[in-house]
Amino acid sequence: MKQILILGAGMSGLCAARQLKNAGFKPILLDKGRGVGGRMATRRFEGGVFDHGAQFFTARSEEFRALLEEWRENNVAGEWFRGYPSPENDKPSDAHPRFRGESGMTGIAKWLARDLEVHSGEEIERLEFQNGRWTAFSQSGNTFEGDELILTAPVPQSLALLRNSGIKIPENDAKTLESLRYEPCFAVMANLAGPSQIAPPGALYINGEILWWLADNFQKGISPREGSVTVHSSGVWARAHYDEPQNEVGAALLQAAAPFLGAPFESFEVRRWRYSKPENPVEIGTFRLRSLNLSFAGDIFQGAKIEGAALSGLEAARKLGA
């Protein structure tokens, strides 16, 4: 049984692992986080539940719609809203449905990981490729081996790990991968003193210089506490303020969001996303280096969305014969 190492237990890694397992391979998922999901992140504090990474997803391809149907049948995902609600236009600009995890976005990832071999809290500090096999060395002192390696972390992180491990990839391939860029984002999770004034269904595209997105997690159906909101900054603002103290960043973003929120905040937490959204995604599915038994997968290789992340993971698995 071929053993496949997959670094990153987000949507791409999980979909690749499920496809590989169904095809008779042995996938081993490694993630530096405490759980699965990556940017499909759900956080709880002070009675509120917050999706603070990816907020929703669409399903436009037949293959991904089949996955969504399975999730819906198992009460893992459901529809949240349709269209593009914005301050300038209360009516949606399209009727296309947007979906969310029934218990939060991380819930979808947990369901995908339910019978997979996942090692959380394992930050890989070095890789080794010898005699056609990969070895991953974790900061914890653990080692993991595989016949193939799939890297699903943001490309700059994956390239840094390869470089620090002394793994050289062909120059033209390196240039292609190094050209891929992401924009950062701040996510503020705030508990308000009362219900927010975000109109139903609790989703609002701001698309401004400071703010990008607002969500009411109570209206979304994942938080038991009214007034538990998520505020996302724009990429431009996050890049300009990325290294500033989190309390200052959170206060500034909540001040900018105040006209839309209505109630004052009682508490908040801030999450920095250095690699929030691909700036220049490509449409190639996966990037494979056959000579190194090495594949790259992620949303940047298939359209910069959750659907693209899933399809990229599936394509990476198929390229290995799954």
For the sheet with most strands, the description reads: 6 strands, mixed
CATH architecture of the largest domain: Alpha-Beta Complex
Helix content: 25-40%
Q: What separation lies between the terminal Cα atoms?
A: 12 Å
- What is the H/E order? EHEEEHEEHEEEEEHHEEEHEHHEEEH
Counting structural domains, the number is 2
Verbal overview:
The protein has 322 residues and is of the alpha+beta class. It folds into two domains: 1-36 and 113-180 and 280-322, 3-Layer(bba) Sandwich (FAD/NAD(P)-binding domain); 41-104 and 182-279, Polyamine Oxidase, Chain A, domain 2, CATH 3.90.660. Helices cover 28% and strands 31% of the residues. The chain has nine helices and 18 strands. A six-stranded mixed β-sheet has the order 7-2-1-11-18-17, with helices on one face. Strands 13-14-15-12-16 form a five-stranded antiparallel β-sheet. It is globular, with a radius of gyration of 20 Å.
Characterize this entry briefly:
The chain is α+β, with helices and mostly antiparallel strands. Helices cover 28% and strands 31% of the residues.
Defining traits:
322 residues, alpha+beta, FAD/NAD(P)-binding domain, Polyamine Oxidase, Chain A, domain 2, 5-stranded antiparallel beta sheet, globular
